[in-house]
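In this supplementary section we document a worked example of the pipeline. Step one takes a protein sequence of length 152 as its only input; no multiple sequence alignment statistics are reported here. Step two produces a three-dimensional model, which step three serialises into structure tokens for compact storage. The input and output of this example are shown verbatim.
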Amino acid sequence: MTLPYAADAETPLKEEEIEVLRRQYHHQLESNHVTVQTKFNYAWGLVKSTKREEQAEGVRLLTDIFRDAPERRRECLYYLALGHYKLGNYVEARRYNEQLLHKEPRNMQAASLMSLIDDRVAKEGYVGIAIVGGAIAVGGLLLGTLFKKARR
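The serialised model returned by step three reads:
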């Protein structure tokens, strides 16, 4: 069961909303003065996107903020975890989310996201096991066929 708190995981902004954030960010970029808040807002919008390249750009911007603005690290943790989750980087998603839960053990949004991460890892683990099992079965059939032909 998924908790409602991680609604950000599947709720993208409208393209027009991302465009407003994009214009603001690029306007400041052209004037050589991008505020941390503008960069964060744009990164947040990109992470919420359904487009993988936008999600990756959002994670890159958030990583910059996390590295360069220590006072904003806590704010970045959830969206870095969310971005990595959406990109399928579950180890990184879990790492950032665990850092947030360490700082805020009662953060329901982070707890909900951790459930989503764990569910996705389990699901993909089962798929991986099925693929490996299928490959082993096919390999076994091929070896058996070759072995029978070699005996004749």
